[in-house]
Specification:
By secondary structure, this protein is an alpha+beta fold. The protein has nine helices and seven strands; from the N terminus they run E-E-H-E-E-E-E-E-H-H-H-H-H-H-H-H.
């Protein structure tokens, strides 16, 4: 397929200026296979050096380039322009996070939520002379949750984070389950106490948005429901 001309409409905003956000249009020739991130880099290099966005690995590993493309939260580095189905593309910053400039959002609030769940290994037994081994069969539940890249896509589509800033959010609760499900960890009681309220697992609306949107296949809702089961009073 030959190169095709696209209209790329980017939501611009500089909060320090006092001006309201606006959409700025750019015309660009895009070859088949080119991603939204590559297109933004071309616009920045050839048309508008003031355009601000965040990226790093370009390989769907770091999560830096999460944004809203044609109304869908996605990683710009793996979203191909020709695959979007039309010749007009709208690019916006992630919702539920404060905009720093243009497509760059402040991640501090999101990352601090992850610290609230004690995201570190807390074994009950003394340190072994070498590494702590785990049988593969005991790692099955925890392993998928290690794939989180902290892109905040789940945070952006969660209806609870949109209305309640105290809510830990799906990424933090997924990371919580990663340690809770680790057979080598010995702090289950302490960990469950951290999420046993409406700011934790009981605040989830269970609409599965986070599980559907995750670019790495992490299923936060499933982990949240597993924690709820463990917190239910024993009859």
């Amino acid at each position: 397929m030959p190169a095709k001309r696209f209209n790329v409409s980017v939501r611009r905003h500089d909060p320090t200026s006092g001006e309201s956000p606006w959409f700025q249009d750019y015309e660009v020739e895009v070859a088949e296979g080119v991603t939204v991130l590559e297109t933004l880099l071309r616009i920045q290099a050839e048309q508008d050096g003031t355009l601000a966005f965040r990226y790093s690995c370009r390989g769907a590993v770091c999560g830096s380039c999460a944004m809203v493309v044609n109304g869908e939260v996605s990683l710009a580095c793996r979203t191909q322009v020709h695959g979007l189905g039309n010749d007009r593309i709208t690019v916006e910053p992630l919702p539920n996070l404060e905009v720093v400039r243009d497509l760059v959002v402040d991640m501090d609030f999101f990352l601090e939520k992850n610290l609230d769940i004690r995201p570190w290994f807390d074994p009950a037994d003394p340190d072994p002379p070498h590494e702590r081994l785990v049988d593969p069969s005991d790692w099955t539940e925890a392993e998928p949750y290690t794939n989180c890249i902290l892109c905040a896509s789940c945070h952006a589509v969660c209806p609870v984070t949109a209305r309640d800033p105290s809510y830990l959010g799906p990424a933090a609760l997924a990371k919580h389950h990663r340690f809770l499900a680790d057979a080598r960890d010995g702090a289950a009681e302490k960990r469950l106490a951290l999420v046993d309220d409406d700011a934790g697992v009981w605040g989830c609306d269970v609409v599965w948005n986070c599980s559907k949107i995750c670019p790495k296949g992490v299923r936060p809702t499933q982990g949240i429901l597993a924690s709820r089961e463990r917190l239910k009073p024993k009859s």
